[in-house]
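Students often ask why we bother encoding 3D structure as a string. The short answer is that it lets us treat folding as translation between two languages. Here is a chain of 139 residues written in the first language.
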Amino acid sequence: MKQEVLKEFIQKVWNEGDINAIPKYIAEKYTIVHDPADPWEGMELDVADFQERVSVSRAPVPDQAFDIQELYEKEDSICITWRWSATHLGEIAGIPPSGKKITMSGATVYYFQNNLITGHWQVADRLGVFQQMQSNQNE
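And here it is in the second language, the structure alphabet:
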């Protein structure tokens, strides 16, 4: 059941940007345990906060897509490895839009309670994204 919830969450919320679907997938309190360089790292979010996070995160890359590579499940958590791609259409960290395709890979552990996602621990190649955006400025 948790695997289906997580796969739907990634598709509906992160890939399609359906912020109204968020209450179906996350608990009332969602904790970002570890996510270096994410502005929300260490924060506890309610549903409205999480909806804002998704909206802000997707705004400069509205065609973003996460492609789950592998998935490992434990009793109360699921770890996924993923590849992400998007078109750089809006400003990110002061870097103007380039219109170029950018990519990243990472791994995320999602925590569950009662088939709702309660938070995550993540590592992602954000440096690689910034390098791609920087090189895009020089082209």
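Translate back mentally: Residues 2-15 form the longest helix (14 residues). Keep this in mind for the problem set.
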